[in-house]
Amino acid sequence: MNFEDGLKLENQLCFSIYATSRAITKIYRPFLDKLGITYPQYLVMLVLWEKENITLKELSNRLYLDSGTLTPLLKRLEAMELLKRQRSSEDERILCVNITEKGKELKEQALTIPECILKSINMNIEQLIKFKKDTDILLDSIKNL
């Protein structure tokens, strides 16, 4: 490959990942519309379904999002009564995020989403697992740059 080929769109790793991410998010949209949440809100809920009480800092680290990006998401989810934000009683500088009963109930409605997504993607499970592992390796190699 010559130097100019490096500037072609089809040779850009970033573009392939970006376009793939947008396409996957589009697959999720009809399922999440039924739940009344967006894809970024779904990611927050996935974390809360695993860990019902978490600090904003932990949530930020899990999702690779800064607090300025997370705060509006959390406010909207709190307005929907899916979570509750409150300051730590031990240290007021720490914001805690807690799932509500309504948030826990939403999990029941979301249980079929992963299977529906798998059916929507034209790859077998082994290919998807390998792709996930490869993207995790890539993320680990660049996340702290």
Structure overview:
This protein has 145 residues and is mainly α. The protein has one domain: Winged helix-like DNA-binding domain superfamily/Winged helix DNA-binding domain (Arc Repressor Mutant, subunit A, Orthogonal Bundle). Helices cover 63% and strands 9% of the residues. The chain has helices at 13-35, 39-50, 56-63, 67-79, 101-110, 113-120, 125-142; strands at residues 53-55, 83-87, 95-99. The chain has a three-stranded antiparallel sheet with strand order 1-3-2. The longest helix has 23 residues, at 13-35. The protein starts with 12 loop residues before the first helix and ends with a helix. The model has no long low-confidence stretch (mean pLDDT 95).
CATH class categorisation: Mainly Alpha
Helical/strand content category: mainly alpha
Radius of gyration: 18 Å
Q: State the separation between the terminal residues, measured CA to CA.
A: 26 Å
> What percentage of residues falls in helices of 4 or more residues?
55-70%
Low-confidence stretches: none
Order of helices and strands: HHEHHEEHHH
Shape: globular
The CATH architecture can be given as: Orthogonal Bundle
What is the residue-mean pLDDT, rounded to a whole number?
A: 95
Total domain count: 1
The major sheet is characterized as: 3 strands, antiparallel
Please give the count of helices: 7
Strand numbers in spatial order across the main sheet: 1-3-2
The CATH topology comes to: Arc Repressor Mutant, subunit A
- The beta-strand count equals 3
User: What share of residues are in beta strands?
Assistant: 5-15%
Under CATH, the homologous superfamily reads Winged helix-like DNA-binding domain superfamily/Winged helix DNA-binding domain
GO molecular function: DNA binding; DNA-binding transcription factor activity
Protein name: MarR family transcriptional regulator
InterPro entries: HTH_MarR-typ, MarR/SlyA-like, Transc_reg_Sar_Rot_HTH, WH-like_DNA-bd_sf, WH_DNA-bd_sf
Subcellular location: Cytoplasm
